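Researcher: Let's run the pair from yesterday's discussion. Sequence first, then tokens, for each.
Model: Starting with the first of the pair.
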Amino acid sequence: MVKTSLKDFKPYERETPIWKIAEEYGLKESQIIRMDTNVSPYLSTKWLKKLQSKLLEIEVNQYPDTSYRSLVEAISEYTSVKHYDRIIPVNGADEGIEIVCEAFLEPGGEVVISTPTYDYFRVSAEIHGGRIVNVERMEDFRDNVVEITSSISEKTNIVFLCNPNNPTGNSVRYDDLIEILENSKNSIVVVDEAYYEYSGKTFIELTESYDNLVIIRTLSKAFGLAGARIGYIITSKKTAGDINLVRPPNSLSTISVELAVIALRDIETVRKNVAKTIKERERMRELLRTIKGLEVYPSEANFILFKTLEWKPSEIYRKLLKRGVMIRNLENIPKLEKHLRVTISLPEHNNKFLKLLEKILKETPPS
């Protein structure tokens, strides 16, 4: 029988498989453009060819090196974090979130979350027996630091922040984070930096001064390696030691580790792809702002949040999907009941989305 604590549990809303969408809407899988998952549209075949040349040397009959030494070295070089014992490779950022909860969340302990944000913070905390304390963001989606700090108590185990935030696209302010850290001396403050490469703003340097700060990153976004499931944690030596107590010994495959190392040693390719995405993001934002019936928000990530003033988000979502474009409908999220989110894709995909959206919004909204 399932745990009693999961009786009323709301699971993470997984992305609908593309084959299922194709069946439902009478489309071929190849006709569907996914602009809902915030992954990079760029796949480096150069990296895959390098991996292919090394496959015969990989002993897949053996377990991976549990220290992931080669990956730690590559992450160290990329982040300029020189001490290897402050770096923890994980199976995607989600595993990072999970093991932080395993290490620091007491049964019934409180978890403060600045919402709306990435829902896996809540999911993992509830699975591990935490009590959620949601702090609603301000009207401009900035973290409400006054409410966050006043919500922190002796019962608080973890505070979750996202920089830049998904799905709103704005970054955590430096002064706000310092204030939260200073008021959370007995709690862990997690900053999810999954979209760091698109904003260029990081708080890694603060992990040298604050033992209670944990940074989580991923190679799923800017690196275009979502299928490889590689992420990493940066924190203080002391906190890394605590997290390593619960880290699974073999959660990263040898092949994924090898691919991640290849990618991390080719940062120039990543930077070029990020630059193309940022250029498209700004172009798309300007064009979206010219479409009547929308309110468009600034973004420092690889997606854009927009509000529909007349239409229901679900109606726009379905009309786009019928024409082969899939974006994210956010209407079931408190404070985002009139919002949708679109991932920046290739220029031709972005153009198709913009053209279809403008055409839809010129129609009369369903009553």
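Model: Moving on to the second of the pair.
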Amino acid sequence: MIYLDWEDIKVALKDLSGILQVLAIVMLVPVIATLIYTPSADPFGILEDASAFIIPSIILYLMHKAIRAYVKTKQDTRTKHAMLTVVLVWMIIALVGALPFMIRGVLDPVDSFFESMSGWATTGMTMIEHPEVIDRDIIFYRSWTHEIGGVGIIALGLIVLIQSGNVAMDYYSSEVGGQKIKPGIKSTVLETWKIYLLYTLAGIVLLYIFGMTPFDAVNHAFAAIATGGFSTHTDSIGYYDSVFIEVVIMFLMLAGAISFLVHYKIFNGDVKAFFRNVEAKYMLILVVIVAFICFWSLIGTDTVGVDTLSPSDVLRKSVFQTVSAISCTGFGTSNVGDWPELPQTLIMILMYIGGFYGSTAGGIKLLRFAVIIKAVIFTVKRMLLPRHAIVSLRMGGKTVSQTELLYVLGLSMVYLVVAIVGAILIMALGYTGYESISTSLSAMGNVGIVYIQGSRWYDMHDFGKVVIALLMWIGRLEIFPILMLLAPLYNKSGKPKKED
């Protein structure tokens, strides 16, 4: 059991300081949108609007300076310190990141925290009912939180850390799966950002070519590659009713949901790396099966927002929503909350599974889902074959150890238990069990698809909003870093345990 003393906390705070410094700069980027989109010619009016981003930036910078001035330690960073830093930074940026919405009077404090957590955790759930009427710089800020949160604000902050190598990679492991691309954390992060930014730029250009305004193209490219889900329109991607835009968005969603290691191999000429990947095979199978069942369930029915007498329209919406769910993005061309229960249930299962390990997607990840399926097959084989038969559980040509299997099963089970607890808390507010579990899984998986309709969603009690925001936080960190903080500070003997 991990023991944290004050010295451990100081190590985590020391590393947190460098990340907060980077975030202080990141928070100033939306000021550019303020300068472009503020209609006032009065410099003081522009400064007043820009203060929504300047004030949080100053707060983050002062926190950085205070920690650096008062927290001194020579202890090296270890895994437990990395996990603690990850937990702290996501909560801090969600709290400070709520200020722009509050300062500009867009949302109340609880809704602002909800919106901020949803943005930084790349969930895409929103308490802004009609984004079209909100100032453009605030809408840009929402999308900007997706862009930065998607690849991992920890990964961005790592560039300023002194440490390099395996220990620093613990941070990257918490954010994007820990699959090394190049030796050294700085090289790994930079390679990740190159790939990420290339997809972002390509998405902006293509979306603009196919009919989006420059503003909409930037915002939707940010949200799609980050598998976020914030849109500039109430009707999300359905607003455009364009096959070409939907194809580009699906490409970006899938790109964000695929491991950066696979992207790196593809960019270096190994195109077959995708098709060799175990997760890719499972993703393709799930998309085909779920999209087909959704198509079959919708065709000929009386479903709002879908021309169920048009096979092409049903197919478009079935495929798009399936990709949106498994990539944990949450964009919509149709309101899934109006669909029949069978496709709704399948979409909910995809929200639980999620995308690739080492991607910006949420959920338990396809790799863990594949291990669970293999474990079931392995168990059946062991039952059917003679006792002396040698059967091993293998994944991608490698044997899965009992320790690894227990970790996968444990995380998947704890993930589900937390989602159920969250659903019970939401259900206590008067929502149905189906609405509650779907919302809980969507928040935990950082998906953003919501089955609760209209005012019943936007007028939810503040308690429910806080619960959902915390589920986003827990899901983004994949549970165990938070469980580490909740673990007893002493082992069974009552003495501190100094090892990791």
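Researcher: Give me one sentence on the second I can quote.
Model: The chain is about 65% helix and 0% strand.
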